[in-house]
Amino acid sequence: MSFIQLRNPSFRSRLRLFFVVIVIVPMVTFAVVLFQLVVETERSQVDARLSEGQTVTQGVEREEEDEARASQRDPASTPTTSRTASAERVSSARSSSESSSSTISSTPPAPKRTGTPM
Question: The whole model's pTM is what?
Answer without folding.
Answer: 0.40
